[in-house]
Fold:
Amino acid sequence: MAIDLASLVRNIPDFPLPGIQFKDITTLIGNGPAFSQVINTMVDRYRGAGIDAVVGVESRGFIFSAPIALQLGVGLVPVRKPGKLPAETYQIEYELEYGTNRLEIHRDAFPQGARVLVVDDLLATGGTIAAASKLIERAGGTVAELAFVIELTFLGGREKLAPYPIFSLIQY
Ligand code: AMP
Structure:
């Protein structure tokens, strides 16, 4: 029987700032059968879909992207915070609600035209994944789909990220 994944996501009010309802995934990944169901559902969706590489976004994205890449039999490419990747990188700066953030990818992360599946824990405003997608394209990849465990639909990330195809397991 399928596990109700949403019931295992813990809501923490006012973290890290007043007014934010933080979706805590530690209670989901701490449950072995539930974690397994998350990964297997993603892998079933993308097996045979011609994915050449999986991109994981630092840092919670790594938790999900690594087992998905492994089971699809393709490589894992990290998109990281500034100063972490050792070889030549492309960098992008993007707006947050307050201030800006930066992300990097290795220039030689994948071959030209590679079909890339992008994985992160949660889609909120979509700013992070929009930036990651631009980096992927600069590095020569094509975004096949954006996959999230959780989507906060009321923040309109899906509309912002159009026309990229988007998949999410749990919606609020
Ligand atoms: P965004 O760029 O707005 O889509 O936010 C992306 C990242 O911020 C996600 O990958 C999450 O790790 C984190 N995040 C944003 N809002 C929340 C939330 N309400 N609960 C947990 N994580 C969040």
